[in-house]
Amino acid sequence: MSSPAPDDAVLREARGTTRRVARTFAIACRLLPRELRDEVYRLYLVFRTLDDLVDDGDARAWERVALVEAWCADDVVASREAAILADLDRRHPIPREAMADFCRGMWSDIAGAPMLTEADVDTYCHRVAGTVGIVMSSVLGTVEDDLARPRAAALGRAMQRTNILRDIDEDLDGGRVYLARETLERFGGHRAIEPGRREALLRDQIGRADALYEEGLAGIPLLRSGRRAIAAAAAMYREILRQIEREGYGARRGRPVVPTSRKLLLAARARG
Question: How large is the average pLDDT for residues 75-88?
């Protein structure tokens, strides 16, 4: 397998972006085989760039997402993200439908599509994160795609549900709610999301995320490479749920943070 040149500007940006804005993921990446680590950094740059453009309401978001869709449909390379994907695709065939589905998730965010049911949340989590798991499994390689990809998608959905619970207050401040309206109503309406009133709601949502982690972890032995890295990423991300529990299920506003020392311990204990 040929490796990208070490002075590649895109690769330098990809490495820096991962280490700067995805510290938990960066710890897990250290456990990847050297020949795949930079490939994963490049892939992460694609997902992160599109997600940040959308989240920031950047005027370039529409075009950049559309150009990735064009690559998925017709191999059109007309943006940096499409060029990175085309380059990766020569070494690790990228599942086009998964990338196209990720773009559909970006359109949902651009449109501010409401989350009415748990099925809506599941669909959203699959599109913005389950697809990432599928594409990542393609880069790492699998023993059997038909078995591995649904489990990789489940792990991605588990991590996205974890993000939603971690970022409740931040999202509320931005006028966004990624919890199902039907679930909020079941636990008392919009007041169920307020600090100090969230415990029943969060217990329900943590249970859903934990079930997805169990499904996703079952797929790690099906990966050809990077099993320990993915196990470490799952353990560190899942620990956010435990941190929410330790902090009283959102008794106070704020983002639960797992100490770096705890993350490193979990990473060291990970076994793929």
Answer: 97
> Are the beta carbons of 26 and 19 closer than 8 angstroms?
yes
Judge whether residue 2 has pLDDT over 70: no
Decide if 123 is inside a domain: yes
pLDDT score at 33: 92
SS3 238: helix
What distance in Å separates the CA atoms of residue 178 and residue 115, rounded to the nearest whole number?
A: 6
Percent of the chain with pLDDT over 90: 90
* Phi and psi based region of residue 248 (left: phi greater than 0; alpha: psi -120 to 50; beta: remaining): left
CATH (domain of 16):
1.10.600.10
CB-based burial, 222-259: b 16+ in 10 Å, e otherwise: bbebbbbbbbbbbbbbbbbbebbeeeebbeeeeebebe
Residue 85 CB contacts under 8 Å (≥ 6 apart), including other chains = 46, 68, 71, 94, 99
Rounded distance, CA 231 to CA 155, Å?
10
Cα–Cα distance measured from residue 225 to residue 141, given in angstroms and rounded to the nearest whole number: 6
- CA 251 from centroid of its chain's CA atoms: 26
- Domain holding 55, by residue range, is 9-269
Q: Which residue shows structure tokens 């651009």? A: 110
Q: CA-CA distance, 246 to 262, in Å (whole number)? A: 14
Residue pLDDT, tens place only, 156-193:
999 999 999 999 999 999 989 999 999 999 999 989 99
